[in-house]
């Protein structure tokens, strides 16, 4: 028997969560109960048609399915299990969809705990940039049963243009974590190529333009490469170095659990840590090139 879905909830209205919730509100034609620790995004979404809530408990009392967009598994677990979380409510909720990038083991452990309380946890982390969240063109990787995937896919499609069922619980997180690992490693390689090319007297924009026409072409080259590395533009509130560190650390933990020596990923992780320590913790993570070029200048 299919689960009832007449109302939706959203917890976590940050850089990605707010536009995702906005798309869900506009396209689902269902009441969307939304909350965040900050009043401003709640108010903006209220003006756009969502129902702003003062607490997670209020969301859980009104929403059949709750979507989460939070920093890590620690916050996800607190929202679900905490004293003022979903389980603490006289809840209406039967399904929680975690759209954060979270630990695979943590996701599976939390799913087991929630299952015992009659709640289903589906992992559905997202990829692509902030603009894609506004445009509703995210790539969403889903972990859960086929039945669970079919249940939430129509709503995920309001937020993403590519919604992929990756397997059982935690599989969405596996795919997302490895996607990010490859992107960070590619940006590392691009930063090294840019530093070497400049040192050898070649213009960086020309170098990347030519590379984009050949076998080295990639999303990483055309977006963080040409838009950040070449102009040296590493703003805050984009995808900060500390977020990249969190994600690639999750990949390394997954590698260790599988007995894989991910040496190249470990080198990128080390560089990101040095980038954060050098004062770029909140800057867009391609700022790693500053460490590469500083290392070159020091020799």
TrEMBL record:
It comes from the Bacteria. GO terms for molecular function: NAD binding; NADP binding; oxidoreductase activity. The active site is at 176. Residues 170-291 form the 3-hydroxyisobutyrate dehydrogenase-like NAD-binding domain. InterPro entries: 6-PGluconate_DH-like_C_sf (IPR008927), 6PGD_dom2 (IPR013328), 6PGDH_NADP-bd (IPR006115), HIBADH-like_NADP-bd (IPR029154), HIBADH-related (IPR015815), NAD(P)-bd_dom_sf (IPR036291). Pfam families: NAD_binding_11, NAD_binding_2. Signal peptide: none annotated. This is 2-hydroxy-3-oxopropionate reductase.
